[in-house]
Design goal:
It contains eight helices and seven strands. By secondary structure, the protein is α/β, with parallel strands linked by helices. Bound molecules: nicotinamide-adenine-dinucleotide. Nicotinamide-adenine-dinucleotide (NAD) binds next to helix 1 and helix 4.
Length: 249
């Protein structure tokens, strides 16, 4: 598999830790140069950069809050300037602010929609013209099984992740003629900082519903993303690829 992304430049948002970091590393392992985007944790981002450089690929950490239009645009600009191009964009940055609807504060609704959905609009909008000009591009948006099945306590998050699917399919239709594919990878339950707060009994209840009877690993999500980024996936667009042990089928 090594080398299949040689000559490509990838940007992964929110990639200083968790699933994003695993995606960035896997794209690099397959030959891409990678921009690590982070919001707060410069040290963790530099560690991710060092891990990629250690396997002989170029990497750079760039700070940006992708939920802000100007910062998202500056990130795309900086990424393109730094490596002289951009081919693969992975919208991975995401947050949860779980609560039952009856208790959910408007800020929790708006913050999740802003980071998990509006940020994808900002990043894609900034990246789309250059991708169209080069007539090759891969956009991979990280959704969630919550956006497919719903999840109690996640009306905000599920709405954002479901919205991401409609967004991705619409954009896939707009840019298909330019050699750009747009797909969604929807993970199931992957132990990361994001899921740390989920109560143990809730975790066990979720596990009991998973046909493969275990949680997933960030690397397993990364493999799916790397496939969709590859030349081999050239005829796949507008798809939602679940990586969930069968949870959502
Ligand atoms: P995580 O909390 O470990 O990582 C999320 C990353 O996004 C962090 O590095 C964070 O700093 C970054 N981020 C958040 N807001 C940002 C912003 N405004 N600008 C830039 N970066 C920002 O969580 P994770 O589990 O690795 O999640 C990665 C993606 O996978 C998210 O989109 C999440 O919704 C999705 N997902 C996760 C799971 C799971 O079980 N862990 C399941 C389904 C989907």
């Amino acid at each position: 598999m090594n080398g299949t992304l040689e000559g490509k430049v990838a940007l992964v948002t929110g990639s200083s830790r968790g699933i994003g970091r695993a995606i960035a590393f896997e794209l690099a392992r397959r030959g891409a140069d990678v921009v690590i985007n982070y919001r707060h944790s410069a040290a963790a981002a530099e560690e991710a950069v060092a891990a990629i450089r250690a396997i002989g690929r170029r990497a750079e950490a760039i700070r940006a809050d992708v939920s802000q239009a100007e910062e998202a645009a500056a990130l795309i600009d900086a990424a393109r300037r730094h490596f002289g191009g951009l081919h693969i964009v992975v919208n991975n940055a995401g947050i949860t602010r779980d609560d039952l609807l009856m208790r959910m504060r408007e800020e929790a609704w708006e913050e999740v929609l802003r980071v998990d959905l509006t940020a994808v609009f900002h990043v894609c909008k900034a990246a789309i013209r250059p991708l169209m000009r080069q007539r090759w591009g891969r956009i991979i948006n990280i959704g969630s099984v919550s956006g497919l099945m719903g999840q109690a306590g996640q009306t905000n998050y599920a709405a954002a992740k479901a919205g991401l699917i409609g967004f991705s399919k619409s954009l896939a239709r707009e840019v298909g003629s330019r050699g750009i594919t747009v797909n969604v990878v929807a993970p199931g339950f992957i132990p990361t900082d994001m899921t740390r707060e989920v109560a143990e009994e809730m975790q066990q209840a979720i596990k009991a519903l998973i046909p493969l009877q275990r949680f997933g690993r960030a690397e397993e999500v990364a493999h799916a993303v790397a496939f969709l980024a590859s030349e081999e996936a050239a005829y796949i667009t507008g798809a939602v690829l679940t990586v969930d042990g069968g949870l959502s089928m």
